[in-house]
């Protein structure tokens, strides 16, 4: 019976997460449709508004309208708010509002919050929420201050808005930029390839946003005592490091041959960090080799860490699958890492999530390629970018057919809300008998 | 202690399988190097002989030398013997020799045999070996007789050799053909696109060879009583059917637009069956759309059924991963199908095998693309073809750099011997303490 109650609670909290995201997206779309949101002062079509709002709330960064030139200051502010809400998570924001307004947070809210950020226990949720909010704003503020000199030098007073926007966009792994003009749309950070300050600040914001709220908490609690860190935090550190260093080295030797060694190092490092899952780019990605594009697709699918502003199947999922393979090869029955065992259910979930991201990515890419007659690699890149909520593109987004745009909208939503959250909510009612069926052998491989 | 003994036995049998395959490959290479093996009567380089022997023993069908025009009748016979040995499995052949020579089969041989064909128990292995041998030769004989009229009409007396060769090559899912001439190399079956007899016979041989020896036994034992079939056989029937019908429909609508409806149907069906993992083609695959090529890559990776002449990660592996995903989505703790539960260890192994094939396929494809400067999709196609022991190619095999050919040799070997077999053999010595470490939560997805 206690298990049943547990399930009913899950069902409700997951439904809250899903409906919360959907509600914010629809509200955002409605506001973005208003004439005041565009620079031209005309009504934006529902399709474009929905795409933009979904991209913002799901912190993806794919855009059918250039953010810098199409949307007005008001529209950009709406987008920034959507990014901030989407980055923190709808539930965290709702809890924050309750806490800040002085009301008591309900048990229901506590457990929803726990599921939303994958916290290990319900206790201390209020403290954790405060911690997340304080941390987020502090880091975003630091980022904005550090970007201020560069943008104020280039844009004058408007540079303040620029700094705030890009700091938040980077920390939330959103990848939206407002550097576009009507002559030069969708530039991302290509104008700042060689600017060390912009590169370093943005990279740090991306990484800090992408390692997850619980990992911060572990860092703040345990500081130098690495042994006392959660196993999950250690796994996140290891995978994050590997997935930055290896691709950076690869890109350094295979791409950007026309740049000087220093700028090439910077460009390689930035393009290694951004696919998981920030979505800024400082170089034109279309010029990269096919293999580099494929490596980026893999990085986009892996994504960031759980309970963070980043998307993708998550570093921990990938790590668990690798650890499982290592355990099989060493013919160990139990999968373990850093002196801790990993549950079989976790491994099965990881396999499911990996499978789901692969299926969504491949189906999406195939549909987009067939429908628009564009090269398969570009379509797969676009699909991986959407389902991983990355926002990088080889330049095809604004030219896609309407149906393909809706494919991207669905991929972004599923990618952000997390497949499991969605599916548990929809299907877990059916959870029926645990009656043990007879076991039968089946050969694999 | 009994577990230790079990492990030692496993270690030995797996080593026997690996070394057996390697030994046959090296012996075959040596014979193929002899002047008598080539039509020109000159010594063949070790690289080319090794590639051809590996491709034959691993029943892949990739070729750096056109089988029909480069190799003499003697060389072709050697290749055919290698195919037959590789298709049945080195261990099955060794057991067969023992049994046929009237000697008593040792316990060691029995258990090796059991591992080699993934039989459920050691008992009845002799009976099973006889059954496999009889079945194989009977079906290959039927196939050859049915092909006789066509090939004798086109080639006269040489048609008998043609029929035997292609019947064995199809049943063993080898994909080698001897239809090439010095003017028209590597034709595969493109000369018989519209020939219903050749198409149907070859398709049946491929399917029967690819569903696995144990599945035949199930069919012969239980015939119409579907309920009494092994769960594994049912899974194999279901996946085989799905992976033939769906791709055939897709190819029918996306490719071969220039053919008449009837021939288009035949071409679509043939090209849907051949990637798993026969390797013949009746149409020029380079003319297919990019998405169709990608679908073929997926089919090649999935491959045939366990304990068969086919390669790939196996239909059952894929089915177990899909079933696991379905169970997660329905929040069931146990994975089940056809009224039977599937063990957690099986699911973890399936995840490992899936991961391993993906990693080998991606690494191989990336290396080939970078080294030879050919399009990524073509390289990935080539790598999937090698690791799935399929033998389809977009025409790049003979032009590859030497290093890339060795990459293909390694992929073919690992793909055929089966990753787990290899790795258990090499690493299982290390299998150490089962001391239970503390369990710790980790969030995935
Ligand atoms: K993003
Ligand atoms: K083959």
From TrEMBL, chains A, B:
Residue spans crossing the bilayer: 12-34, 77-100, 131-152, 196-214, 235-253, 310-329, 350-370, 406-427
Subcellular location: Cell membrane
Keyword terms: Cell membrane, Ion transport, Membrane, Transmembrane, Transmembrane helix, Transport
InterPro entries given in the database record: Cat_transpt
Primary location class: membrane
Membrane topology field: Multi-pass membrane protein
Pfam families, alphabetized: TrkH
Name the UniProt record assigns to this protein: Trk family potassium uptake protein
Lineage, top ranks: Bacteria, Bacillati, Bacillota, Clostridia, Lachnospirales
């Amino acid at each position: 019976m206690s298990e049943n109650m547990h399930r009913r609670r899950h069902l409700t909290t997951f439904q809250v997460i899903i409906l919360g995201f959907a509600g914010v997206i629809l509200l955002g779309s409605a506001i973005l449709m208003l004439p005041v949101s565009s620079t031209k002062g005309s009504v934006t079509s529902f399709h474009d508004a929905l795409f933009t709002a979904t991209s913002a709330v799901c912190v993806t960064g794919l855009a059918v309208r250039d953010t810098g030139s199409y949307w007005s200051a008001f529209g950009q502010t709406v987008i920034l708010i959507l990014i901030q809400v989407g980055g923190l998570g709808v539930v965290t924001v709702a809890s924050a509002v309750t806490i800040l307004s002085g009301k008591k947070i309900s048990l229901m809210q506590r457990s929803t919050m726990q599921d939303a950020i994958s916290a290990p226990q319900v206790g201390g949720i209020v403290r954790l929420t405060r911690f997340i909010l304080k941390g987020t704003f502090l880091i975003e503020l630091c980022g904005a201050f550090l970007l201020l000199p560069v943008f104020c030098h280039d844009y004058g007073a408007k540079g303040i808005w620029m700094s705030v926007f890009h700091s938040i966009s980077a920390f939330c792994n959103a990848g939206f930029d407002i550097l576009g003009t009507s002559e030069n749309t969708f530039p991302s950070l290509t104008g700042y390839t060689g600017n060390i300050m912009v590169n370093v600040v943005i990279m740090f914001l991306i990484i800090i946003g992408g390692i997850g709220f619980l990992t911060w908490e572990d860092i703040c609690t345990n500081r130098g005592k690495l042994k006392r860190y959660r196993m999950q935090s250690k796994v996140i550190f290891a995978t994050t490091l590997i997935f930055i260093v290896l691709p950076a080295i690869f890109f350094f030797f295979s791409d950007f041959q026309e740049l000087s060694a220093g700028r090439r190092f910077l460009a390689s490092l930035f393009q290694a960090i951004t696919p998981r899952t920030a979505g800024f780019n400082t170089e034109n990605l279309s010029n990269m080799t096919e293999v580099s594009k494929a490596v980026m697709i893999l990085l986009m699918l892996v994504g960031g860490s759980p309970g963070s502003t980043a998307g993708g199947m998550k570093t921990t999922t990938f790590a668990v699958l690798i650890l499982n393979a290592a355990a099989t090869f060493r013919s160990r029955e139990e999968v373990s890492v850093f002196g801790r065992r990993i549950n079989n259910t976790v491994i099965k979930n990881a396999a499911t999530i990996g499978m789901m991201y692969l299926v969504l990515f491949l189906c999406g890419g195939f549909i987009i390629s067939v429908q628009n007659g564009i090269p398969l690699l570009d379509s797969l890149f676009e699909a991986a970018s959407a389902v991983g909520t990355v926002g990088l593109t080889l330049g095809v987004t604004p030219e896609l057919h309407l149906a393909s745009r809706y494919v991207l909208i669905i991929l972004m939503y599923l990618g952000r809300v997390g497949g499991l959250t969605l599916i548990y909510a929809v299907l877990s009612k059916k959870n029926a008998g645990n009656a043990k069926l007879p076991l039968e052998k089946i050969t694999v491989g």
